[in-house]
Amino acid sequence: VVALVQAGTLMAQGGIPAAAEPTLVRREPRARRIMLAIVVSILLGIFLPPLINVNRYRANIASSISSAVGRPVTVGHLELRLLPQPGFDLRNVEVGDDPSINPEYLLHADDVTAYLRLSSLWRGRLEIARLRLIDPSLNLVRAEDGRWNLETLLSRTTQIPTAPTAQAHPEGARRRFPYIEATGGRINFKFGLEKKAFTFTDADFALWLASENNWNMRLEARPFRVDTHVTDTGSVKMQGSFQRNSTLRYTPVKFSVDWRDGQLGQMTKLLTGRDPGWRGSTSVSVSAIGNPADLSITSDVQVDDFRRYDIFGGGAMRLASHCTGHYLGAEEKFTNLDCQGPVGGGTVQLWGTLQRLRAPFYDLNIAGRNVALKSVMGFVRHAKRDLPDDLSAAGTADFAFIARKALDPDAKTLWSGGGTSNDLLLHSQALGPDLAIGTLTYTIAPESPEKPKRTMRRAAMDSAPQQVQELNEFRLAVTSFPLPLGTASSTAAEAVVTAAGFSIGISGDADLARALQVARALGIDTPRVAANGSAKLDIHVQGHWTGFEAPDLTGTAQFKNVQADVPGIIESVQVNAASASIDGKTLSLQNVVANFAKGPNLTGSVSIPRNCSDAPCPMTFTVHADELSPEQLNQLLNPKLRSRPWYNFFMPHPAGETDPLPKVEASGQFSIDRWNMGGTVATHVHGNVKVAAQHATVDNLRADLLGGQHNGEWQ
């Protein structure tokens, strides 16, 4: 081989001396011998290991590993390998755990390969260069007293002298630490005897001694939950280093964790066991430096395309926050906690102290400075269905709240604080003219003045009220504010926000058309009628944060001089007076006095179910007419008589208009003073009527007719 290289060099220089050719010919048999030796070595590497029985050394190797890790070790089978690198194949390797912490194994691997360092073989010593584990299973256990099962294992690193993994030459008695890697692993977590549903699967792990007393590690795995079906949980990548120390609590560490490509709904289901219905591409980054007793932590959380699961419009939205703090391991306490998130041109900030995540105690401050209400409305639009895509808000908000919970298992959270929103204005094409609300003031307030004890507390912000109340529940009261609904005097409104939901009260005079327009633009379920007139309102809108039910509308209203277009009736109805009551089940109209332009004059009442799961909703009614005829009924109910533009005169009627009562289901009582049938008049007509499936049935029909009485049933 050397001669061939020399010949190539001479040829590149322009020629070969005459004496060089015999030399190449004489060395050709030696090259053949080298090639033959290589082939024989390969064949021996393939066929020789099965003929050598090294399984009798299995107990010795298990004993050596056990003494190194300080835990009982068993090896099911042992084989020798020579290619591509000399080493040993171990089967069914199991490392026991500290019985005072975990009765199960610490580590189990079906296949383990130990590759030897070739350079160590020439020196007559045995060193493992690389240790590879296939599909291992690792149990990480935290005892009731706070100890981890890895503590004693890591402490042995201070007792065994080893040289760095990448060091070129050994140092006397010190062996070089092997490069340890695992692929396709599984990491389980246990607190005491309880095995958690949360686990890591498809875990790839590596550990090596990078320099004197400094270990490096990396991990990439997929989070998983065994008690429910989860997908799109993303992947977790972790890189870190730690140094030798006799106590894990004071071991210097430095690490970073990145959780990427997770879907928000699946990530929350992974952590809590349920999917609350939020969607978005989520990433979490955490970095820490220090030791487990005192860690400096920095984290960033970002959610792109945040939305509710059934909302697909409204544009893209990003949520982001940045947090710093110190973690004290002995107390399980976060101190100097400071989280900030941009909201438009302002920020929302949380700072304070948090202790014991499983049963937390805390002293936290939450404040917002110059928060853009446009961004807040963008969040609401992505969190609540049935809002217009172009609904936006102008104005800013400033607030400050304090939440405290003492170190007592029976203690309740104490809330205090308040804030203001300035120049609030809502805009949307569905809203029509902009809704200018102005200034809102809100504060933590009790249900009644007698319950809380007033205290004086310095607010966290200058804009927040100086005198606040400290309560053992979150109840934010928005003081009464004017709500312009199309009348000279603004309607008064007030609101209450709690941890469970919200309630808005509205009372006063309003233009009915404007009130219905505003309600529909804000996603409040209202009757699908077009109406103009005046109304006196006393209503409440209530909603819950959990689940995705639409806000519920309850209360009463008084109507006067209302002109309404009712679906299924051709002509507009003039309601001179009526009163309405709304509860969770029905919408009722009582004391209705109404008329049509060409008659008849009507009085009565109607009750319509709300939130029907099956359409049509069966409604009930009572109606009285002064005079009525078949021609008038035809004029009111026949869709062919509906006035249309002249250019549609020769067009066929839409299919939906050919059937006047395709979706109506109603039953009730009626009475008519005079029923005029082409000159034949019946008086004192009354009976029961039922309309369903495009059929009308009248029973118990009674009338004075032709000097006698009619009694029968019509269909």
Q: In brief, what are we looking at here?
A:
By secondary structure, the chain is mainly beta. The protein contains 9 helices and 36 strands.
Give the secondary structure arrangement, pairings included.
Layout: H1 2-13, H2 20-47, H3 58-69, E1 73-81, E2 87-96, E3 105-116, H4 118-122, E4 128-134, E5 137-142, H5 151-155, E6 162-163, E7 175-176, E8 179-191, E9 194-211, E10 214-225, E11 235-243, E12 253-263, H6 264-272, E13 278-291, E14 294-308, E15 318-328, E16 333-343, E17 346-355, E18 361-372, H7 373-383, E19 392-405, E20 414-427, E21 435-444, E22 453-456, E23 467-470, E24 475-483, E25 491-498, E26 501-511, H8 512-521, E27 530-544, E28 552-565, E29 573-582, E30 586-595, E31 601-609, E32 619-628, H9 630-637, E33 666-677, E34 680-692, E35 695-705, E36 708-714
Parallel strand pairs: 4-8, 5-8, 6-7, 32-33
Antiparallel strand pairs: 1-2, 2-3, 3-4, 3-5, 8-9, 9-10, 10-11, 11-12, 12-13, 13-14, 14-15, 15-16, 16-17, 17-18, 18-19, 19-20, 20-21, 21-24, 22-23, 24-25, 25-26, 26-27, 27-28, 28-29, 29-30, 30-31, 31-32, 33-34, 34-35, 35-36
Molecular structure report:
The protein is mainly beta and 715 residues long. It is built from 9 helices and 36 strands. The strands form 3 sheets. It has a 32-stranded mixed beta sheet that branches. A two-stranded parallel sheet has the order 6-7. The protein has a two-stranded antiparallel ribbon with strand order 22-23. Strand 17 (346-355) and strand 18 form a beta hairpin. The longest helix is centred in the first third of the chain and has 28 residues, at 20-47. It is elongated and about 135 Å long. The termini are far apart. The model is unreliable at 1-26, 449-468 and 653-658 (pLDDT under 50).
